[in-house]
Write a structure and sequence with these properties.
The protein is an alpha/beta fold. It contains 15 helices and 24 strands. It has 2 domains: about 280 residues, FAD/NAD(P)-binding domain, CATH 3.50.50; about 140 residues, no CATH class.
Length: about 525
């Protein structure tokens, strides 16, 4: 069995698959290691949640609705892997348990839970933004006799029909789970800490006419996406909310509501909703009116109406609020009556109520961005793990590289762009593969009889990039909300700036400038 590679890629989602293809196309030997049993991914708008670089496949591959679900994403990624014969480079059901830089040989030494010891010149992490589960630690949770799941490890087969189901959390995943399960269960209780602003997804059947229009315009669609701020396929507004009268503002909000997509509603209507309090209030009040008009029970409606800024990840749904019109769907406000502990039969809240349940689903999110890096001991030049280095908050240069961690490249690492993921992933994969190609063409020093070039970010570049990210988010209302976007969803974790908020267009411009300047900010280039 081969144990030495040019590159080891950790993760076989959107990033790992494309990284594998790019490096194989460069003639490098590659091993992709994935903990799951197959390739993976999540969900969003159909025509952009795929790869842009295979135009023929974009036009031919079938999709039936405008909003693609997780099962369809998985099927698509499996299709891509088979189409480009990439499975032969992938090893599944294998978890990386450590990665150490060997300065004597200029190699990464990677160990797995299957007992393998592998070596590679380059280590690329494609572990995803949202993959380390944030599992609740309520007293007695182990005593619960029913079914207990986290949405991050959803069972392949389940049957909740006729069961009493409790859902902890109502973020993006919680909203989707509640919407999907409401029609099949006997009782559904949403244990809600923070009410959310939720906009329709605009999910409709993709007619042949619509699909033809997309196919005929795919090149322009991708060009527009990669040159926009959030890469969701719409033009972001340049107009402030208060630059128009109240009637026109209402019309614009209503049009966006009917079209669907949370990002479109927040950023396609007006340019200042995320940072101007008056504009934010206008958007928030519009959504609150929609909630009151949709939810017939005034008690349920009052629990569902948010009280803070409209400044979390923009959510969308396929009938979320409507589900609460059903008698068997209700809300437990756990700010008003917190969960005290689990029992054998269910969940007890501070008012003494024992909510008897057959199933508890934890839609409690993930330790975003840096969570998996703190789980896997990755030791760099000084023998320090990334977890220890990032004890006061994660940092990087461009969301890609960290000083003292030579030849380590991250896809969607901390302080990468906050945008639709596939276009961001493609941007970073192409930058990393170009940097690897550039490094391989250098004239490296002789190390133990082998020539191996080494490249890493400088401390100055990391510091300057961190300062850029901090300044870009300083005036954002997102920063004033307890959101996973700043790590505030994890108990005990210090909130910090996890993203670059300059948009994909500006990020790509920055990368182009780095390349043209001979990979400015990197040692060894």
């Amino acid at each position: 069995m081969q144990r030495n590679f040019d590159a080891i890629v950790v993760g076989a989602g959107f990033g790992g698959i494309y990284m594998c293809k790019k490096l194989i196309d460069q003639g490098l030997s590659v091993k992709v290691i994935e903990a799951a049993s197959d390739v993976g991914g999540t969900c969003t708008g159909s025509h952009l949640y795929r790869y842009s670089w295979d135009l023929e496949d974009l036009r031919q591959y079938p999709w039936g609705r405008t909003y693609v679900r997780q099962a369809e994403v998985l099927a698509y990624l499996q299709h891509v892997v088979e189409r480009h014969r990439l499975r032969q480079y992938m090893q599944f059901d294998t978890e990386v348990i450590s990665a150490d830089w060997d300065a004597r040989c200029n190699l990464w030494v990677v160990r797995t839970d299957t007992g393998q010891k592998l070596e590679a010149k380059y280590l690329v992490t494609a572990v995803g933004l949202l993959s380390r589960q944030n599992f609740p630690k309520y007293p007695g949770i182990d005593r619960f006799k029913g079914e207990l799941y986290h949405t991050g490890s959803w069972p392949k087969a389940h049957d909740f029909k006729g069961k009493r189901v409790g859902v902890l959390g109502n973020g993006s995943t919680g909203v989707q789970v509640i919407t999907a399960l409401a029609d099949e269960v006997e009782q559904l209780l949403c244990f809600q800490r923070t009410p959310q602003y939720v906009v329709p997804a605009g999910d409709v059947v993709a007619t042949p006419e619509y699909r033809k229009e997309i196919n005929d315009s795919y090149e322009d669609i991708w060009k527009q996406a990669k040159n926009s701020q959030f890469a969701f396929g719409f033009e972001e507004s340049k107009n402030p909310a208060m630059s128009v009268g109240s009637e026109e503002r209402e019309r614009i909000f209503e049009e966006a509501w009917q079209q669907g997509n949370g990002f479109r509603f927040m950023f396609g209507t007006f340019c200042d909703i995320s940072y101007d309090e008056e504009a934010n209030k206008e958007a928030a009040n519009f959504i609150k009116k929609k909630i009151r008009a949709t939810v017939r029970d005034p008690v349920k409606a009052s629990k569902l109406i948010p009280t803070d800024y409209y400044a979390r990840r923009p959510l969308c749904d396929t009938g979320y609020y409507e589900k609460f019109n059903r008698d068997h769907v209700d809300i437990v406000d756990i700010k008003e009556t917190p969960i005290t502990h689990f029992t054998e039969k269910g969940i007890r809240t501070s008012d003494g109520t024992e909510h008897e349940l057959d199933v508890v689903i934890c839609a409690t999110g993930f330790e975003a961005v840096d969570g998996n890096y703190t789980r896997i001991p990755i030791r760099g030049r000084k023998g320090e793990t990334l977890k220890r280095r990032w004890a006061e908050g994660p940092s990087s240069y461009l969301g890609v590289s960290v000083p003292d961690y030579p030849n380590l490249f991250m896809i969607l690492g901390p302080k990468g762009p906050f945008t639709n993921l596939p276009p961001s992933i493609e941007t970073q994969v192409e930058f990393i593969s170009g940097l690897i190609s550039h490094t391989n063409n250098l004239a490296p020093a002789l190390v133990n009889g082998t020539r191996r070039a080494v490249v890493e970010a400088t401390a100055e570049a990391e510091e300057e990039w961190s300062d850029v990210c901090d300044k870009l988010s300083a005036n954002s209302l997102f920063r004033k909300s307890d959101s996973w976007i700043f790590g505030a969803n994890v108990p005990g974790k210090r909130p910090t700036v996890l993203f670059y908020f300059g948009g994909l267009r500006n990020y790509r411009t920055v990368l182009d400038g780095v390349i043209k300047a001979g990979y400015k900010g990197f040692l060894g280039c």
